[in-house]
Amino acid sequence: MSNDLPLTKEAILDAAEQVLRRYGPDKTSVVDVARALQVSHGTLYRHFASKASLREAVTERWLHKIILDPLEAIAVQSGGSATERLRTWFETLIRTKKAYAINDSEMFAMYAAVTLDAVEMINTHVNQLIDQIARIIEEGMKSQEFKSFEPIVTARAIFIATSRFHHPVHAKEWSSDTIEQEFASVWDLLLYGIS
Amino acid sequence: MSNDLPLTKEAILDAAEQVLRRYGPDKTSVVDVARALQVSHGTLYRHFASKASLREAVTERWLHKIILDPLEAIAVQSGGSATERLRTWFETLIRTKKAYAINDSEMFAMYAAVTLDAVEMINTHVNQLIDQIARIIEEGMKSQEFKSFEPIVTARAIFIATSRFHHPVHAKEWSSDTIEQEFASVWDLLLYGIS
């Protein structure tokens, strides 16, 4: 890319993701990303004031693309069983997190680190996920598959109660032999609760 | 202590806990503990072959004393509401973990680290906790407060579903303003499930 072209946020994040993957989050600086884009670091600093904000923005985009958008496609489906849709939503979340923890370990490690620092961005992300769950629960309340609850409160409770299976601090436990059986028994209990 | 006295396991663990608290788990060696006990490190190595096994044994004793024994006192109570006893058991677990994370941060950090390494010891500890929960659930099934379940499976599911509130990887989240409200909504959902 030449520095004659306007520097879009997408182009910066593409370059930053590449550089972060190559050197790792600890060794990547804003200057490295500016170099990859062939712009001065002054130019890049006008868009991202720090290495931390660049890392956060790359993680945010990654979470949108690999987690939020595919799950939104499940949440917006209508008709059929809300119970099945809710389970598909959670199984997709869990399967995706596990696959990335294994196959894209650099990005996953960066995400796990950002989780501890970028509290506000992660809260927004989690609230978007909980909103998707709440919409499925509302559908299930309408079809009388589920009892009547405050959808957001119940959605948050189910999300928290399944933390073991999707929160990155538990990633080491996801390769356990018993993890699927454990998910099944937690899921049965939660479904007894809402059905 | 003189090296003329027999070296009991308790005496070694007392000395090791003191030394670990003073120097921290990373800097403490078996030799430091031997010196505190005024025995040769050869003598100590006959009891504990490595720094890791000493650390594990100190953590195991600590978990027994501060977690397992007080919770056993709740589990063995009989009469009264099993629902209330189950909630008291969990609230005690959660309150104790949180208090130690704040007020005994050296031991808590060592416990959190050992959790990742001493998988077998931690599994045994967790199984002992789950057995206590299962006994309360059995009482609740007898009194018809709870529906009929396989007590151990349900106990494990409830333990896992409340991980956010007691698993040491989540310790940073325990000081959140909303954590008590989150526990209350997870708890309500789990109780709907079993009641």
Automatic annotation (TrEMBL), chains A, B:
Signal peptide: none annotated. The keyword Transmembrane does not apply. SUPFAM superfamilies: Homeodomain-like, Tetracyclin repressor-like, C-terminal domain. Keywords: DNA-binding, Transcription, Transcription regulation. Residues 29-48 bind DNA. Residues 6-66 form the HTH tetR-type domain. This is TetR family transcriptional regulator.
